[in-house]
Design a protein that fits this description.
elongated, about 70 residues, mainly alpha
Length: about 70
């Protein structure tokens, strides 16, 4: 879906004369405190598992960029 969303955003940007972003793979969106805490816990657990599995930090960073976490 993201490639199609990018094409739509580019066309909308041209027509509207200002940048338009459409993001279909945004990071976890938890709007309640409990949901945010569970999301953070899952992220930390996953990072620890990636480290234990020997996944290189560059690969982890690449995956994080896919979900719009720049680091």
């Amino acid at each position: 879906m993201q490639p199609v969303a990018q094409l739509l955003a580019e066309e909308a940007s041209e027509k509207l004369g200002q940048p338009v972003e459409i993001d279909t793979i945004r990071p976890l969106q938890a709007f309640d405190a409990g949901g945010r805490a569970r999301a953070l816990s899952a992220i930390i657990k996953t990072l620890a598992e990636a480290k234990a599995a020997g996944i290189p930090p560059a690969d982890v960073s690449g995956a994080m960029r896919m979900v719009d976490w720049k680091e």
